[in-house]
Amino acid sequence: MKSIRGKVVALVVLCSLVSILICGGISIAKSLNVSNRDAEKIMSAECKSNVQDLNLMMEKIEQSVDTLAQITTSSIEDFSRFKTDPAYVTEVTDSLAPVAMEFAEQTEGALTYYIRYNPEFTEPTSGIFATKNSEDEPFQMLTPTDFSVYDPTDLEHVGWYYIPVNNGAPTWMDPYLNSNINVYMISYVVPIYVNGESVGIVGMDIDFSKIQNKIDAIKVYDTGYAFIVNAQNQIMYHKDVEYGTAVAEMGKGSLGNLDQALGKEEEEYREINYTCNGEKMDAFYGTLRNGMKLVETVPNQEFVADTMEIMKGLLIGEVIGVLLSAVCGFVFSSKLVKPIKKVTEIIKKQEDLNLKKDAELDRLVKMKDETGDMARAVKAMNGKLCEMVQLLEKTGMSVLDNSRMLGDSSQEVGRMCTDNSATTQELAAAMQEAASTTESVNQNIGTVTENAKVILELSQKGEKEAREILERARELSTRTQSANENTRSMYDQIMQQRKEAAEKAKAVEQINTLTQNIMDISSQTNLLALNASIEAARAGEAGRGFAVVAEEIGTLAVQTRESVQNIENIIAEVNDAVLNLGDCLHASMEFLEGTVMGDYGEFLNVSEQYAEDAKNFEQGMQQIAGSVEELNQVIDQIAVSMEDIGRVTNEAADGVSLVAGKTTEIVQKMADEESLVQGNSEYAGQLTDIVGKFTIDK
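Structure (tokenized):
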């Protein structure tokens, strides 16, 4: 497809097709959702309605049986007597018989009704049991089932009694076949109690065909139908499946989806998809009052029939839309292509280098669409090409003149470059010599740096030793001051002891006074003893005992005098010793005060001067170290500067060498340019020939 017309038609058809497909797809999807939603609402509402109808029928049956059960309970006025008096049981039964028949006749579909009592305290056949073969016949009273014949666990025969009693609540029994009349029945049984004790049951058997007829009357679309299952998902009634069949075994397919959904309360009245015998089906269900489930099912193709009709209509509309788009595209493209062909013819003229004005182009530039833009662009290009041709003509002449001038200039530049190359080579040699000198200076700076480092280490070591001397001087000063204080303390202590010794010497003088007193007392005692002896001698024999005492007193006085004399001798020696001790203490005090304490004071002054000198020495070492550090910093700066100078010098030398090389290359290039200038002159001539090929308005 080479023509624009074909491309435009294809593009229009394609855009229309894409738009139609997108809109149609969205419409179909929306329609399908709406149709499914509407169908689901219709099916769900219909299922609810049918469930309500069946529940209404069952509710009437429940009301009838529940009321009869209440009447039965209220009829037993004396329960104790009822349990022990068979006559009273018969009396109650006879009163209930007409009431029970009336309720049964008013209950739609009732074929059997019964009131049975607890066989534990009543006769095994006691109670009421009535049945009929069809709805048109009257009820017939029959003998109730004999409980004594069956075991309570025999649910097949007496389950209608024991199951509700065991449940303790009203119970709907599953449908069963009454073989006597060959009719399927469904039972509703209510257990009755008095004072919490089981009395019996009240129940009715309903013709199951009443429910079957209602189910058969349910029509879902064209071929859809309804069926019911029990709490175990077994078929209770289905138009094509046998009674008692499990839902999962109704046919082949994904019936498990339906079987699982029927057991979930949240799936009620919602769409359930499953497959049965190769056909896709949709189902809805609701739970009945008796625990069974009403299921309404319909083939999926009928469920979405409305959507399929909408899809067909949309497809037909899409085809028509595509055809109309193709026709419109063809007409539109024809009008679009005609001016383009005109512009193409004008461009072909320009291809032949014919740039003369064209009247058709002047008409096309007046169009307001893209074709007019293209025509205006072609006209503008034509004008610019004409200007370029004229400019090329002028440029060719200028290039020729410039080429001649450039040739002369190139020769002059070549000569100057030769001189420049020689000069730069000399400058490069000088730069290399400066670089070597810089390296020598760097080596000398390195030596100075090493010596400065040695001085710095020595000054730091001297500073460290000065700090040690200062510490020792401070320690000597501390020790000297401590010794001086100890000596001062010793001096004060000796002075105190000297004063105490002087006081004690005074005590010795007091002892002398006391001894003198004792001597006086001893003399008086001796005198008294002598007088006593005289008086005893005068008394004669009577005073002999007193004479002995007087003698002893005289002896004691003599001994006292001798002792006092000894004490005086000792005291004299003590006084001499105290005097000698005082002289020694005085001499010691003079030595401590005059010599020792003076020496310690001198030591303290020397240690302080020693510490001051060490501190000054340390400060001097610190100043030397600081100066050396500043010297190192200056040397480092000089070294860095010399390195920069050396580096810059080397770089300058390299640059000069490079300039020299480049200058040589320039000289060579200038030689090449001379040949290019000659070629340029030739090209200028060729350019003039090219301009001559264009046809333009002069």
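The longest strand covers residues 183-194. The longest helix spans residues 370-539.
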